[in-house]
Structure formats: C-alpha cells, structure tokens
Write a structure and sequence with these properties.
256 residues, globular, alpha/beta, 9 helices, TIM Barrel
Amino acid sequence: MTKLKVGIQIQPQGTSVEAMREAWIAADQIGADSIWIWDHFYPLFGDPDATHFEAWTLLATMAADTNNAMLGTLVTGNNYRNPELLADMARTLDHVSGGRMYLAVGAGWFERDYDEYGYEFGTVGSRLRQLEADLPRMITRLAKLNPRVVGSLPLLIGGSGRKVTLRLVAEYADAWNCFGPPENVAELSAILDDWCAKVGRDPHEIERTVAISPEDVEDIGRYLDAGASHVIVGLGHPFDMSPLERLIEQRNALNE
C-alpha cells in the first residue's frame, strides 16, 4: 500500500514574514513531509490590497530555516520567469536545503499577476503551449548546471486540464498536483493513467498530491482510495497548526 505523505501550504497574504517563518519552522518540527507556498503577486481572496510577499524569495528563507520537510511552490506560474533561470533557482535552493526541493510549475491563471507585472496573459491555450515548450528547456538546463542537484528535485506539474496538462504530466512530471474533493482526484487520476498508457509511462512513477482546505482534514483515507499519496492543507494567517497535526496523526496511523 502507498505510504501517505502530508504537508502544509502557507498562504503568503494578509500576514508578515515573521509569522510565516514561525509557521514553517513549526510545521517542520512537528513532522510535515512537505511545506509549500503559492507563487502569486497579489492576494487570491479577501482584501485585494492585503499584504503579500513574493514566493521564491520566501522559499530561499524557508530552505535555510528548515531541516526535514520537502519544499516547493504550489505552483509557480510558468510565464513569470525564464525557464532556464527557474531551473537554476530551483537547483540553487536544492543545495541550500540539502536536497529537499521540488520544481513545481503550472501554466498560470491569475490575470491580475500578468496585468500588473507586465506579462502577456494570452489565452489558456497559449499559456499551455508555452508550458509545453518550456518544460524541456528546464530539464535541459538542469542537466547542464554545475554543480548538479544534490537531491532528486522532482518536477511537479499542477493542473487539471484533461487534454493537455495531464498529458504533459504523463510525459514529463515526477509529481502532479490537483484539488479535492476525492471524487475529483479519482476522476483526474484515471485520466492521467490513460495518458500514461498512451505515452508509455508507468503511472506509479508519478507522485499524486492534492491540495485541500482545513475543513477537509478528517478521514483522509478517502484521498488514498482516490489515488492520491500526498495531501497538503492550505492555511492562512494566523497559521493554526491543528489541521496539519490532524493530518500527521492520520498519516502515522495509516502508515503503520
């Protein structure tokens, strides 16, 4: 049976750097398998003018502050950074963290980020085509960098697009992220399995992560039954750790 992993996404809006640092240090100490932030430039909900912080700068601090958990963005907007640069950033933080980094990307979707920072928003199709073009560039750059990564640096792709995104996951990814509920995970996971068959990939090679809300942390075995192996709860300020603690309790019981 697949061993369950659990993690936390610390939402970098409506908070302070000090509060986030306290949260990810606490999550690392109590046993989270992974710690994540999101990669946006403005709040995703609530007050649109609330405080907000940039993801990869925070991720560098997180890499230095923690010792145990895997780390990543859930997920990085592909259009926000040159793909070769992004690969080098991930490789560098892989060294800072002692091999605990994911390189997690998606096609992007939050239009305000694009408009306010001067990126071309385009269409869903154009952003997916750009992601498809950029993934091999990231992989090629990682192979050229000196020194190489010290960890496995899994390539994670986030998204639920049935025709393109899940095909790209089957072709390139070591891990894939989607959202609950379990029924959604089960449906998308089956489609991913079909894409793996079409491209000649073993579906068991792909780690399946799912992002959930704090209200959905009970009976987490439902997500294992749906095909997920890594459950990540999203938390906003003031970063109450009890949902993560509940996930850890269930992980430990299910993995016995």
